From TrEMBL:
Annotated site residue numbers, Important for substrate specificity: 192
Residues that coordinate or bind substrate: 163, 192, 249
Entry's Gene Ontology BP terms: L-methionine biosynthetic process from homoserine via O-succinyl-L-homoserine and cystathionine
EC number per UniProt: 2.3.1.31
Family: Belongs to the MetA family.
CDD domains found in the cross-reference section: GATase1_HTS
SUPFAM superfamilies: Class I glutamine amidotransferase-like (SSF52317)
Catalytic-site annotation from UniProt: 142, 235, 237
Organism the protein comes from: Streptococcus downei MFe28
Domain of life: Bacteria
Gene: metA
Protein known as: Homoserine O-acetyltransferase
GO cellular component: cytoplasm
Length: 314
């Protein structure tokens, strides 16, 4: 089944060229089916690229998915035109009365700032709070994961001595979690960050399960036992050349970046990187949609608050 999108969204043509079936909203309304409703809070500066990356993996499911994008109104984007946001995105104010099966909160290039110094922090806190009652499962990515942990549990992020950038191996440590079904004992994932959270803090401040971790990356994937909260510190959604573009960007900005680890063939930056994490990414996002979202959410999403009240989630 397809993803339902605004047919003018640039990602639509890219996905169709990759033989991914995308259905426009007009045709979707003619089908007698309740689609899975997923909201994406896109905090990345290159919004079009992030849209395509996420949609590519969310499409790998037999479910019909209705997607909406939101942006933070309290932040003025320097890389995305206001007309683009007004056409393809909504604000929190526009969707706050609605309910969603799933929410994805992306990373953001603000990790070296204290959370409270981020100009949209208060708005993000509103979204975190709103999601408790209006979203069944929230998937937090990279900085979005660190922000969610800080907001809910006061888990602090720590600045590392160097930027973690490259393709790293992670081990699955909780094989019985539905999110890890289909994974090998270890898998590769891109990471691109200056900060980390420690296992000691997570164990002392939360009841989250550690699903995957690695010697170099530390914690990789965390989740609550009911899969209502999921935190991934890597970037499984990244394209083949995303780390390459980040590396070239930092070179032009004279930041003196190190080449991403285990990424360029023979360590040569002029070589085409190999895509070695796509299967893990596809498995992860499919598992999230199937086990954390589709099989758990009520048919009438408005029943979320009543269900949460009965199970003591509120």
């Amino acid at each position: 089944m397809p993803i339902t999108l605004n047919k003018k969204l640039p990602a639509v043509d890219i996905l169709k060229n990759e033989n991914i079936f995308v259905m426009d909203d007009i045709r979707a309304r003619g089908q007698d089916i309740r689609p899975i409703k997923v909201l994406i809070l896109n905090l990345m500066p290159t919004k079009e690229a992030t849209e395509t990356q996420l949609l590519r993996y969310l499409s790998n499911t037999p479910l019909q998915i209705k997607l909406d994008f939101i942006y933070t109104a309290s932040h003025q984007s320097k890389n995305t035109k206001a007309e683009y946001l007004e056409t393809f995105y909504k604000t929190f104010e526009e969707i706050k009365g609605d309910y969603f099966d799933g929410l994805i909160i992306t990373g953001a290039p603000v990790e070296t700032l204290p959370f409270e110094k981020v100009d949209y922090w208060q708005e993000l806190c509103q979204i975190f709070d709103w999601a408790k009652h209006h979203v069944y499962s929230t998937l937090h990515l990279c900085w979005g994961a660190q922000a969610g942990l800080y907001y809910r549990y006061r888990v602090e992020k720590l600045l590392m001595d160097y930027k973690l950038s490259g393709i790293y191996e992670q081990d699955v440590v909780e094989h019985f979690s539905p999110l890890m079904r289909g994974f090998d004992d270890s898998f590769l994932s891109p990471h691109s960050r200056h900060t980390q959270v420690t296992e000691e803090q997570v164990r002392s401040k939360t009841n989250l399960q550690i699903l995957a971790k690695g010697d170099e990356v530390g914690l990789s994937i965390l989740a609550s036992r009911d899969l209502r909260e999921i935190y991934s510190f890597g970037h499984l959604e990244y394209d083949r050349d995303t780390l390459k573009r980040e590396y070239q960007r930092d070179l032009k900005a004279h930041k003196g970046p190190k080449r991403p680890v285990n990424y360029f063939p023979q360590g040569q930056a002029d070589q085409q990187p190999k895509l070695r994490w796509s299967l893990a990414a596809s498995t992860f996002f499919t598992n999230w949609l199937n086990y954390a979202v589709y099989q758990e959410t009520p048919y009438c999403l408005e029943d979320l608050e009543e269900r949460d009240s009965l199970y003591g989630y509120l």
